[in-house]
Amino acid sequence: MSVARQLTLRLKLDSALSFDNFFTVEANLMAIAELRRQAAGQGEQWLYLHGPQGCSHLLQAVCNSAQAAGRMALYLPLKDVAAYSPVDVLSGLDAVDLICLDDIGAIAGKAEWEQALFNLYNLSLQTGVSILVADELPMSGLAFQLPDLISRLQSFSVLGIAPIKEEERKVALQFCAQKRGLEVSDQVADYLLSRTERDFASLLQLLDQLDGLSLQRKRKITIPLVKELLCC
Q1: Does residue 173 sit in helix, strand or coil?
Q2: 41 CB-contact burial (10 Å; exposed 0-12 / middle 13-18 / buried 19+)
Q3: Is beta strand 98-102 parallel, antiparallel or unpaired with respect to 73-77?
Q4: Domains of the chain as residue ranges with CATH
Q5: Which InterPro entries would you find in this protein's record (predicted)?
Q6: What is the pLDDT of residues 21-58, one digit of tens each?
């Protein structure tokens, strides 16, 4: 399989991810407002987004929103492409309006990639392309080596995404279910939260599996259906 074909398979943007189906807590309202502005071409040119959950969803929401507004936007999950040459991944970006780089820490310490990212920043100075980068860690937690790149990244405006609190998990789960067209009762939500992994990303994966099983069995999502899935 050619490099171009492999990259095409890895770089697919999830068109279903939007700002409207992202569960938003009050602490994140200002950050999301700034992301909306960047998607519309009205906000900061360079943004750094970090948080333990939700960044990948939001980067793709930014891209989808920008594309809906007629802008050319590109989403690059760097952890999926870090093994490739940046020459193959980052070529032909002159005409792009917005570049979203997810999991930027995946290329930290890779000299060729760090130089390519520094060059991309310089390109943005010439063309006006907006750059949004994200990672679970704050910038200080990333092990970049190239001093010029570090100084450029430090010029980015920083947005933090607060994680969902324990007391918000049930409401968040039911919100995400509703956005998928699913009905999850209070009893089912409580059962899921008490018997599954605690990180919310794993919970959403389980919700997608329940959706598929519900369709397959032609049954509503109930505690017996959840038990059937969990025992498999």
Answers
A1: helix
A2: middle
A3: parallel
A4: 3-160 (3.40.50.300), 166-230 (1.10.8.60)
A5: Hda (IPR017788), Hda_lid (IPR055199), P-loop_NTPase (IPR027417)
A6: 999 999 999 999 999 999 999 999 999 999 999 999 99
